[in-house]
Predict the 3D structure of the following.
Amino acid sequence: MKKYILLILMAGVLSGCSGWTIQPLPNNPPTPFLPPTLTPSIFTATPVVIGPTATSNISTSTPVATATTLMTNTNVPPSDTPVLTSTNAPAAPSISVEVLGCNTSIDVTHGMGEVTNAYVILKNTGNVELTNLKATLNALDEGREHPDKTVEVAALPTSHAVTLKLTVDSTYQEETPVQVEVIGDAGLFQRVGADSCRDIGLFAPDPASLNTPVPSQ
């Protein structure tokens, strides 16, 4: 009985086997190595358009330089040349005093004996008109004050001169040192003296030309 049971068990075991004593492991073939797939580049062909060719009208002639004559205004100074501009000079009053000479005479009109007459030229040498000028004659041996001792000139323009006759009471037949003093609105100008006023003789100025400003030379 045990023999039959053993045979049955063996038959069952054998029926459950596949005929292999050692059952092989299931065959899982390795995954073949494939290189990475490159993304294919897509090239779009640019269509070539064949059409009529535009021809440029290019002049092959050599350009010739043309000389142009410009009119030059010679009256206009160049831009880099400095232009002088006149400026107003400051007022500078100035006067020149010249004693031409003297002579003597008898002044009966004023009850005086001998008097000395001095002829003087005043010249405006400045750049401004001189106003209210007073020329006074002084003598070393002067007696009474003569009415013509001082002569006034209301205005003496620039570059003008005036001839004056000044008179003082002097000693009879004596050499008389004299001095001429000139003042005006601008103040005292100068004093001009002479130790012995020379005799002017026949060269005394014309009385009609006295006290009148004239252009100076």
